[in-house]
Amino acid sequence: xxxxxxxxxxxxxxxxxxxxxxxxxxxxxxxxxxxxxxxxxxxxxxxxxxxxxxxxxxxxxxxxxxxxxxxxxxxxxxxxxxxxxxxxxxxxxxxxxxxxxxxxxxxxxxxxxxxxxxxxxxxxxxxxxxxxxxxxxxxxxxxxxxxxxxxxxxxxxxxxxxxxxxxxxxxxxxxxxxxxxxxxxxxxxxxxxxxxxxxxxxxxxxxxxxxxxxxxxxxxxxxxxxxxxxxxxxxxxxxxxxxxxxxxxxxxxxxxxxxxxxxxxxxxxxxxxxxxxxxxxxxxxxxxxxxxxxxxxxxxxxxxxxxxxxxxxxxxxxxxxxxxxxxxxxxxxxxxxxxxxxxxxxxxxxxxxxxxxxxxxxx
Length: 363
Hints:
Elements: H1 40-50, H2 55-64, H3 89-99, H4 119-123, E1 132-133, E2 142-143, H5 146-163, E3 173-175, H6 182-195, E4 200-202, H7 203-219, H8 228-232, E5 236-240, H9 244-247, H10 251-260, E6 264-268, H11 274-277, E7 278-279, H12 285-290, E8 292-293, E9 297-299, H13 306-318, H14 331-341, E10 356-358
Parallel strand pairs: 3-4, 5-6, 6-9
Antiparallel strand pairs: 1-2, 5-10, 7-8
Helix pairs in contact: 1-3, 2-3, 13-14
């Protein structure tokens, strides 16, 4: 990049360009007043209100704990990739999960009324303070002793193994992906191996099953091949069918740091997401006040036109002649625009659902 400054810090983290860049400003109106945008500072105030009963505990979790919403090596208010504050609305929204009090067990005595309650309202009921069991025919859950709960679980495992010739193949462990520490996952898989099964699953795998399946088929490995640092140091980032402004808001700060250095961003999506068009990064003064134009090009490829569009991009990039496809819409002109977004000499392009990056050449 022509205007890429030296941003490597002694600790290996990256520091964004500090000089203002008015060409990226959304508006000179402070904090985007009158614009449709997330209100991050209101979210901070709401989080403080939701955790008002345990303010010191909440502060200790934020200042010394790890993030419940990502795996960026967050420790307190910083991470391993960039210098400065790392704090997103996802983490703030999950804070009350750690500080909330115990629910009244009588609420679970009859589950019929709870069927009309939303997931958010169920979480607001509070933590489960004791082991509780609902047996066949019961209207709800009843509190039991820990010894009884463990006996129930152990008895079901023994019965399953006895019914399957001593095999534990019909025993499985399922863990949630959010709010559980790595230590819990470690102990769970150790317990599963001791019992004799490898059936260990979690919500994160199901959430990422489409992307990991595609990566395994395309690259031979189910892991992504880029890092957040690659996004900052790339010439071009392509977000294909990804709404990171809402699903992974912390990524917007990395895009912002890249934009300050000349990064170009292209979005392929039938819907023009406002947050990907313009965004206000709350932890950066310049972006929080004036906003940041996040995307150079939007390509509203119609549903079913993805293959025709990527064929057009490949043809424009590598002179490959594809067969004409239906529902291509604006693919011809859009594909030429996409390849030109990377500059006169594209440096290799990796396309993926979330996100696609074009890594920068080394010195």
